[in-house]
Design a protein that fits this description.
Length: 325
């Protein structure tokens, strides 16, 4: 699956593609992690990195190498690293564990990864600001390998959709709310796919419900206040001082949906209001959606129709028809 669709505008400064014939130069590309390589199989080295920078929130790196390598890297303070082995890539070994296609490796700040990658390795590395994973259980602790999720197709699809969406929009820097939402969705999906992401149960009992509603009301205030500029689930967890699981329980107790779905619901409502405004007649539906943090086009259309019973273009056409009567 390509990471950038064909027929799009020229790549902006947030996209970087580099080819390497030296392992040290390739290792240095993943800045901040102290990456160190040793070549273990004979022959000229050929490798590449393709990187996508979403400000300080998230950077995505697709790495390919034609030789077997010994790799060592350490996650710096304030960051969280995530890796997945892509389809058609041979299995890798990290810290003594065999990692196959579909496994997700999470390495919090302060952890060190050592291992070997085979010839033909295709590895996707994600560097996340630790603020985006507060409350998700990934801030500290040992390396985690999530095997329950099976093939990491959903995570890969999310990454591809995000990269393609911002390539069409122009740049993540132009759409702050959408960038925050993409990074939050990415972090939250890793949480859901890991063992820590098993469905949260709603607390029973009078005291539990009272606490849940108190957490929900405080969280709702934060979401409403910051929705225009972008708000992440991890940000809400950090500011309230609760875990991701506790926040999930609170929202399901209060409104019957998780916090991420709640944010998406508010976004859809704001997009709908803007679609019918006369001053937005010259703005594309995609741009209007991105202003409110919506970037996944196919999911947007499906979610919008499920919520309002019509597609976004139908809402706009009805509004335009009403103004011409």
């Amino acid at each position: 699956m390509p990471l950038v669709a064909t027929g799009q505008r020229a790549e902006a400064v947030w996209v970087h593609a580099s080819n390497f014939e030296d392992i040290d130069a390739q290792a240095a590309h993943f800045a901040g992690y102290g990456q160190h390589y040793e070549q273990l199989s004979a022959g000229p080295f050929r490798g590449s990195f393709r990187s996508y920078q979403f400000g300080q929130h998230v950077s995505l790196h697709l790495e390919v190498a034609n030789r077997k390598l010994m790799q060592c890297a350490s996650t710096p303070a304030g960051r969280c690293g995530i890796s997945i082995v892509l389809p058609q890539s041979p299995s890798c070994t990290f810290n003594g564990h065999l990692v196959r296609d579909g496994d997700i490796i999470v390495y919090p700040a302060g952890t060190t990864v050592q291992g070997t990658t085979p010839e033909g390795m295709k590895l996707f590395c994600i560097d996340i600001d630790a603020q985006n994973v507060v409350g998700l259980g990934f801030e500290t602790g040992p390396i985690r390998i999530a095997r329950e999720a099976g093939p990491a197709g959903e995570l890969h699809e999310l990454i591809v959709s995000g990269v393609n969406a911002f390539a069409r929009l122009g740049s993540p820097a132009e759409f702050g709310a959408a960038t925050v939402d993409f990074c939050s969705t990415l972090s939250d999906l890793v949480w859901q796919l890991s063992n820590a992401g098993r469905p949260a149960s709603v607390r029973a009992g009078k005291q539990g419900r009272r606490l849940a509603f108190a957490v929900y009301h405080r969280a709702r205030e934060i979401v409403i206040e910051r929705l225009e500029v972008g708000v992440s689930v991890a940000e809400v967890c950090r500011d309230i001082g609760v875990s991701r699981r506790s926040l999930e329980c609170a929202f399901r107790t209060a409104v019957g949906m998780g916090p991420a779905q709640y944010v998406r619901t508010l976004q859809l409502n704001r997009v709908r209001r803007d679609l019918v405004l006369t001053e937005n007649a010259d703005s594309s539906i995609g741009v209007i959606a991105a202003r409110h943090g919506v970037w996944h086009w196919s999911r947007f259309s499906q979610s919008y129709r499920a919520m309002f019973g019509e597609l976004p273009r139908d809402t706009r056409m009805r509004a335009l028809a009403g103004r011409t009567v």
